[in-house]
């Protein structure tokens, strides 16, 4: 077991886990999936289509006839990580196809790695399949392939990400996601619910709802109605959450912008239909900083909303991410952020130091903050967040918590409470009486001990 420290990259998805045994002569594809959970869902869809066409999935480079690298291009550091991963795949395998967000800049990739076989952009599934067909022609077995296949999952079997839309309509100056992934395109409600129902039937215990802007789901569809089990369901986040909550699994909402209608989700959490957990990207708290980001500048009203959410659902867990060292950020603006955090008392907090990203409008802003100042502010921010986390977790000692088991090894069981999302939040560890547990089990635990970010307890 390992404790969960504050993540320097709160946008990261869990590491992929592939367990496959190809039959003799079966063409085999490897996958390296980088970046956020949305990219992980793309990887799952690509591999599901390939498996249905007769390809096997390799867990390593040497067992693969070709390797797909699904890249991230959100930050310059993520771009460098993607280029490193492409280079490693070329060294270890040689036949490499590149897709994902960085694929929107094919010259950037081929300039660094001219030997890649193909480059496709984000969610271009058909183009990826065509590139695979050219690199490694399919050899389907008519007795076992070309049949409806259960989806390939790159996460543990007991939880799964469900992507409800692509793209984003916001124009934040530090972000190039709309340029890479386009404007908001929501999936039909019935398609999401059918996917979620199949996942639950296959044993998934937790559905993690993701998109670039979950609150805006259905806006582009004008909240149209879709048939579902003899009735019609509106393409709206509140209606979708209610229907997902009826499937019997945990439902966790990520990337929820604090629009006024978010308050309609809180009663669903109080009723137990949806986990009492909101992941909201506040980014900053000072009005002037938010304006320079081209973000909604209403930090004071946000505090009122948070108070109302907690009044309606006292158990709610609030997670967010912030940027420190944004161009023009003064010490006064940063101190306002710290004071706001003191008042907001968020449960889970991640933080980025601002980075220039090629194509972002924020690059052209004046008064960029020196690296040493950004580091100092990050350190002070995380120190404040740690103190809040430590105090909040200490209050949970002696309480009963329902947990889901993620991993069991010789030392104990690593679990999560309803307040913890995979990879980015804390864990609850059980180190006595855990031998009968398996990943995906749900048990009730009494909390015995609390640390900075993690809890320890025993089964009751």
TrEMBL record:
Q: What is its main location?
A: cytoplasm
A GO cellular component annotated for this chain's UniProt record is:
ribosome
Instruction: State the EC number(s).
Output: 2.8.4.4
Per the entry, the cofactor note is: Binds 2 [4Fe-4S] clusters. One cluster is coordinated with 3 cysteines and an exchangeable S-adenosyl-L-methionine.
Sequence ranges assigned to domain Radical SAM core in this UniProt record: 154-391
Catalysed reaction(s)? L-aspartate(89)-[ribosomal protein uS12]-hydrogen + (sulfur carrier)-SH + AH2 + 2 S-adenosyl-L-methionine = 3-methylsulfanyl-L-aspartate(89)-[ribosomal protein uS12]-hydrogen + (sulfur carrier)-H + 5'-deoxyadenosine + L-methionine + A + S-adenosyl-L-homocysteine + 2 H(+)
Q: Which GO terms describe its biological process?
A: tRNA modification
**Residues engaged in binding [4Fe-4S] cluster 2:** 168, 172, 175
Q: Which residues bind [4Fe-4S] cluster 1?
A: 36, 72, 101
List the Pfam families: Radical_SAM, TRAM_2, UPF0004
Keyword Ribosomal protein attached: yes
The family database entries (PROSITE patterns) matched by this protein are listed as: MTTASE_N (PS51449), RADICAL_SAM (PS51918), TRAM (PS50926)
Domain MTTase N-terminal, by residue range, is 27-137
Q: Which UniProt keywords apply?
A: 4Fe-4S, Cytoplasm, Iron, Iron-sulfur, Metal-binding, Ribonucleoprotein, Ribosomal protein, S-adenosyl-L-methionine, Transferase
Q: Output the InterPro entries linked to this UniProt entry.
A: Elp3/MiaA/NifB-like_rSAM, Methylthiotransferase, Methylthiotransferase_N, Methylthiotransferase_N_sf, NA-bd_OB-fold, Ribosomal_uS12_MeSTrfase_RimO, rSAM, rSAM_horseshoe
Cofactors required: [4Fe-4S] cluster
Q: What does this protein do?
A: Catalyzes the methylthiolation of an aspartic acid residue of ribosomal protein uS12.
Q: Give the UniProt family note.
A: Belongs to the methylthiotransferase family. RimO subfamily.
Please give the name of this protein. Answer: Ribosomal protein uS12 methylthiotransferase RimO
